[in-house]
Amino acid sequence: MNVVSISKADWSLHRKGLMDQHRHNERIKEAIRQNLHDIVSREDIILSDGKTVVKIPIRSLEEYKFRFDPGKHEGVGQGQGGSNVGDVIGRAGDESAPGAGQAGSDPGYDYYEAEVELEDLAALIFEDLGLPNLEEKRSQKLAAETIRFSDIRRHGIYSNLDKRRTILQNIKRNAMRGVPRFHGIRNEDLRFKTWEQEVRHESSAVVIAMMDVSGSMGEFEKYIARSFYFWMVRFLRTKYQNVEIVFISHHTEAKEVTEQEFFTKGESGGTKVSSAYQLAYDIIQQRYPPSEWNIYPFHFSDGDNMFSDNRQCVELVKRLTEICNLFGYGQIKQGWYPAGTLMSVFSQEVESDKFVAVTIEDKEDVYPALRKFFSVRDRAAVETL
């Protein structure tokens, strides 16, 4: 007589540590998402100099738990009685509330520094961003090499082992012997994926980063501009394989510079913004014909410009919006905005759906600026490049 014993073991306790760790990591990610406005403009991240791990202060995440309260309150938490439905028992910010208005008497918040991979942080910042108005161009000049798994074979390198098919093959072989289970793996069970290298032509795009480095740009303005471009460059290189970036710095004259010079070199002098727009237009005509490239110029300035140059700026912006997918202008100015700034001129004279402007008055405005410039109207466009 054959006796079969069936038992069901509860393995959830063995996985509790992993589950708690996963839940904790998700809570950290959610805490980061809720504080991206502050995190994006943190100076230690912007000046991280390529470090792969950054420390981010996060308010202490505590699990709910019971606490022993030795005689501080009478009873077990019930009310004092004598109240009716609709009675107000307290108001937020009430000066008469216990502890209100007493300097230094309220407890502070606990924070701890979470170590986060810069790539993971970038993924959270860029998870729903993309190049807007992306189009398929007549000539797909850029080619990207990709790997495509095309066949299953019995021999190959172990890094290409197809575990699922190997297990199925083992179960199938054992079932033919009357033992339908995974056991005693042999070489004849092994299955390997083979791959081919493909060349895939993709839509080509160029982003032109322009920054005012004149004497009117103070330390705050230059820091904000570099903060935006720091995340923009990382966004483009994280999200897309083939995007060219052109860097232009200007005061009264504009010049194309290297990425390192763009982020580190300071200038002085007056401001003639049209010099940057003219150089961007010339570079487009010489190297990036609009029929073959998606073009995205961005410019950050404090808004101060030679009054006699404003008309030329307007005309060049209009010409650029005709050939570009989007023109982004960011004005950095703390406090009052004079009537003669570029923002006021552009808002009155430039009427185009492809012209997007933002104002930045504080560090926390950098993240909303990223979202406004790189909001994708066509979600399918995100993966085009």
Report on the structure:
This protein has 385 residues and is α/β, with parallel strands linked by helices. It contains 11 helices and 10 strands. It has helices at residues 16-34, 36-40, 43-46, 118-126, 163-176, 219-239, 259-264, 274-287, 310-323, 342-349, 366-373, and strands at residues 53-59, 111-117, 142-153, 192-202, 205-212, 243-250, 254-257, 294-301, 327-332, 355-360. The chain has a 6-stranded mixed beta sheet, with helices on both faces. Helix 4 crosses helix 6, helix 6 packs across helix 11 and helix 8 (274-287) packs parallel to helix 9. The longest helix is centred in the middle third of the chain and has 21 residues, at 219-239. Mean pLDDT is 77; it is low at 97-101 and 378-385.
Strand order of the largest sheet: 7-6-5-8-9-10
Order of helices and strands: HHHEEHEHEEHEEHHEHEHEH
The major sheet is characterized as: 6 strands, mixed
| Alpha carbon gyration radius | 30 Å
Please, how many domains?
3
Gross CATH architecture of the largest domain: 3-Layer(aba) Sandwich
Helix content: 25-40%
Mean pLDDT: 77
Number of helices: 11
CATH class of the largest domain: Alpha Beta
Low-confidence stretches: 97-101, 378-385
Termini separation? 67 Å
Instruction: Note the overall shape.
Output: extended
Beta-strand proportion: 15-25%
In short:
This protein is α/β, with parallel strands linked by helices and 385 residues long. The chain folds into three domains: 19-62 and 110-126, no CATH class; 143-201, no CATH class; 203-383, Rossmann fold.
Primary descriptors:
11 helices; 6-stranded mixed β-sheet; alpha/beta; two-stranded antiparallel ribbon; Rossmann fold; 3 domains; disordered C terminus; about 30% helix; about 375 residues
